[in-house]
Specification:
Layout: E1 3-9, H1 15-25, E2 30-33, H2 39-43, H3 55-76, E3 79-83, H4 91-103, E4 107-110, H5 120-125, E5 128-130, H6 133-145
Helix pairs in contact: 1-6, 3-4
Length: about 150
């Protein structure tokens, strides 16, 4: 069986690639998916429906178009990994975690110790909290191959 793992959250570091590379070393049968990680493309998703002069409406339309992808991929995944970085607030990642919790989708949070307090409710609903991509790899290795 191939596992489908959705990688949500922070887009400014290489955590996704580290996680993917780590799972390859264990030869885990995983198919990865994620939101659009190119920031300008994501911000412009609503432009497909026509240009907007007002930034609120541009963001509103873009978030809805992006949510088609996000909602579909979260619903199809076996587990989600949700990364919170320290440089930017990832409100979209918090929303993804809440959605996972609401539909009973297992998820792992990935973040540093210095943001435990603001994420306490998000972490409380998670199946695990990790501080490094390598810890997530070890969790996935255990869950998938019982090693």
């Amino acid at each position: 069986m191939n596992w489908n793992v959705y990688l949500s959250g922070e887009i400014h570091t290489d955590w996704r690639q580290k996680l993917i590379d780590g799972t390859k070393t264990h030869e885990l049968p995983i198919v990865f998916s994620s939101p659009v990680t190119d920031h300008p493309s994501s911000d412009a998703a609503g432009d497909l429906l026509g240009a907007e002069d007002n930034s609120f409406w541009r963001d509103h339309k873009s978030s809805k178009v992006n949510r088609i992808r996000t909602k579909t991929l979260i619903e199809k995944c076996d587990i989600a990994v949700i990364r919170f970085g320290d440089k930017y607030k990832q409100w979209n990642a918090a929303f993804d975690a809440g959605y996972c919790a609401a539909i009973g989708k297992p998820y792992i949070t990935l973040h540093d110790e210095d943001i435990i307090h603001p994420l306490k409710e998000v972490d409380a609903a998670a199946m695990a909290w990790a501080t490094t991509p390598s810890q997530v790899v070890e969790i996935l290795n255990y869950v998938i191959s019982a090693r």
